[in-house]
Give the backbone structure.
Amino acid sequence: MSTRTTVTARDNAVTIRTEIGSKHLKSNKQYSPGCFGKIEIVDHKSAPKWLVWNPYILHGYRVQLSIQESFKSIFNLHNETGNIWTHLIATLFIPLLLLFCLFEVIPEESLINQIAFSINLLCGALCYLSSTSYHALGCHSESSWEFLLQCDYAAIILANSAATCSSIFFGLQCFPKLQFFYTSIGFILGSSVLIILIGPVVLNFKPKHLDLIELIRFPLLILDFAYGLVPFVHWTYLYGINSPQFSVIAPRVFTTYTFMFIGFVIYYFKIPERWFIGSLDIWGNSHQLWHIFMVLGPCYTYGTSLLFLKEVRENPC
Ligand SMILES: [Zn+2]
């Protein structure tokens, strides 16, 4: 994200905050105790402007910390604590889940299937690690915040593409041509979204181009997430809605997309803090809920992949 784009976003945020007024504000400066000592937290007016990206979060901002202090602040209470821990726990959990699956659930599977399953989970873990780093270390400086934000976007796109491609790979095992076709499209779509969203920022395009990127980011991410429905519709056509496969898989796909949809709505409309301004600065705001839904959705997808494998094992092509 460019400086100009960032400025536009945070100007909007500051404008909304000004309209909100100061009646919701707690004291201007506070100290948050933690395992490695206390840190200073401030309200949005005293916070570094690049950190003020949610106009409904009024307090709990860390001031510019060193990298070491930022790491330590993981154990303090501030308005990024929930964002950090929701994805830090997922970062630690996914590799353990992968080891459990490889040794206990699919030890008999072919090497290619184990690799495909592993890539999906490892991309998910990378995404959560990238998100954790962004929320934990972004308060260090504006340049580190921008760099980590781009890494976060890139990791989200990568993890989503891996989840989509692995679902197609496992779901269409009995249809190799379709498997190749839809996996290729998924790969090309993910790569294109990555290049369109990240490329101009890396190459430092003019601000007007970067404003356009800001505008199309959300629709493009939605498109990237929604693509997986296309091969699923084709899969439904191949097996039929009365097949036992459909009755097992369809509710899981529906649940996954419901998690994603709820997560996107909460994220986009900043629910519920827009209704409880200043009350959900530390816990219970939209970004934390979005993080949780972005863990539930992919975890459900991992289970669906295992079901696809079980189905082909029990009913060979
Ligand atoms: Zn986040």
Q: What stands out?
A: The pocket of zinc ion is lined by residues 83, 131, 135, 287, 291 (CB under 6 Å). The two ends are 47 Å apart (CA to CA). The longest strand covers residues 29-32.
